[in-house]
Every structure is written in C-alpha cells, then in structure tokens.
Amino acid sequence: MTSSSVSTTLPADIRVFDRGWLSSTNIVCLGEEPALIDTSYVKHEVETVELIRKTLNGAALARIAHTHLHSDHCGGTHALQRLWPNAQTWVPEASFEAARVWDEEALTYRATGQRCRRFRADHAMAVGQTLRLGERDWQIHAAPGHDPLAVFLFDPRDRVLIAGDALWEQGVGIIFPVIDGAGGSDAFDAFEQTLDAIAALQPEWVIPGHGTPIARGTGALQRALAQARSRIEHFKQHPESHALYAAKVFVKYELMDAGHRTWSELGAWMDRTPDLHRLHQQAAPATAWREWAHGVVAGLISKGALRDDGTQVSNV
Ligand SMILES: [Zn+2]
C-alpha cells in the first residue's frame, strides 16, 4: 500500500465482530499477547467465549480492556476470566474502584434494571497513558457524553480508533449524565467535545461500540460525525425528546434480553427501574406515570420495534 492510497481494510491483526444492539462489538487485537476490547452482554456470554476461542486459534487470551462498563460492554468478562484466569483485565480509571468492590449502584446496573456478572478488575486505564493490546500501543482518551466515565482508544500508527458508544454510524447513544442530572445540560456539550476529539485525531477507521467499522476513506466517518452532532444539537434544544428516546431504548433493551414479558411483568419492571421514573419527569411530568409508561411501550409497538401478542409483549 502506498502512503497516498485510501485504506479499504482494517489492519489484519485487528478483528471486529459486530454483535448487534444487545451486545457490544468485540474487537480482538492479535499478537504476542492477544487482547479483547469490550465483551458484550451477559446473555451472549457462551457465544462470546466461543467466538474469541476460535479467533485466538489455540492462543490464550492475555488481556481484556473495556471502553466503559455498561452492561452490554462487559457482560462476557466473567465467563472469559473463567476460561482464561490469567487474562489481565483493564477498566477505565474512573470506574476502577466501583468495579473492584462491585458497586452495582455506581456501575448503573441497578438504575437501568440491567444485569451483569461480577468480574475481576485488575488495572485502571488512565487518560493520557497508553495500553499495549495485541501488537499495538493504544492511547487512552477521555470520552464523556454517553457515559462520563468512558474512554476511547487510538492507535496512532494506523490511525484506528475504538470509540465505544462515543460514536455510532447511525444515531447516538443515550446521554446518561442527563438522565441522572449529574451532568446537567453540560452533558450534551461533553458529548460534542468528545466528537471534536475524535475528529481532531483524524482516524482512518472508527470502530463503534455497535455496528461495523466506519471508514474515513469512504466518507462514512464524516457523515457519522455530522449526524451525531445534529442529533445532539436536537436533544439539546428538546431535552424531552432525549428522555423519550432513552426510555424507548431501555424498554427495547429489556425485551431484547427477556424475549417477551407479560404486560404486567413489563409494567412491574418499569415500576422498579429508577431511571425510567427520572425519564418520565424529564419527558412528560404532567402525564401520570402509568399512562406515560404505557405510551412508551405503545410507541415501540406502533413502530414495529415490539409486538403486542395480547397478554404479552415480544421483541421483534
Ligand atoms: Zn454504553
């Protein structure tokens, strides 16, 4: 490849597995010490272990790293550590203590009503440092916005960037600091600043937390950045639309995990999920909780994202 050519394939030592929306993308970095970044949701842990085992072709997994500790990015870590007990495991420094003592409140699993199996956190990933994963030294950058504690990784040699949920090809992730009020309206700005930081590094490839790699050479990266910026701008002007979007994502996610729920089971899950009550207050405080909660589910059904089978609601 000449220096002026446009790269059309990722370097061969980086393998990317798009696992859909319930589970994060898995990124394997091959080399002397094979590494995995992000481990998907606990529901898929058996498939995740099998996928990584096949990809490593007899080698032992040496390192596991996480862009952030949302349940869909670290749910396979427990099972991977069981098969490879010597795999050293990194989490973002800001989450290290919560992961070490397994504080389910700080780790968001309680507020979101999601599940994750406890795993061992060995090392903290500090912003400004580099981390050897596979045969590359990855820079660790702060990635606030979607999750204030998240990081993204950047390989300056081939300009590959592992974004976690800081950038997707379509749409944007929920802005969690807006939900819990911790970030106020600054949280939208933090997300935009993370997009600026990604753009400033001029990556050839961005590997998103969900979906397939986004290339600069095809123009897809510029489009992804532009649509993310306009979506965040819209949310900033209309925070109630972010709240409704987030509530729909939570409910859809629960049904992707469960497969189906009776209306009363789903109602009970919504009743006991604190973030949904916060979102209700942000989206439509004048509407009664039950009416609003029913409307969130009905909205997903009318869009075809869920199916109403009479007594139960099913994932589509
Ligand atoms: Zn996330």
For the terminal residues, how far apart are their CA atoms? 44 Å
CATH architectural label of the largest domain: 4-Layer Sandwich
Stretches where pLDDT is under 50 for at least 5 consecutive residues are 1-5
Morphology:
globular
Could you tell me which ligands this complex binds, including any ions or cofactors? zinc ion
CATH superfamily of the largest domain: Ribonuclease Z/Hydroxyacylglutathione hydrolase-like
> What fraction of residues sit in β-strands?
15-25%
How would you describe the overall organization of this protein?
The protein has 316 residues and is α/β, with parallel strands linked by helices. The chain has 2 domains: 224 residues, Metallo-beta-lactamase, Chain A, CATH 3.60.15.10; 77 residues, Arc Repressor Mutant, subunit A, CATH 1.10.10. The strands form 3 sheets. The protein has a 6-stranded mixed beta sheet. A 6-stranded mixed beta sheet has the order 7-8-9-10-11-12, with helices on one face. Strand 9 and strand 10 form a beta hairpin. The protein is globular. The structure holds zinc ion. Zinc ion (ZN) binds next to loops. The site of zinc ion has 7 residues, from loops.
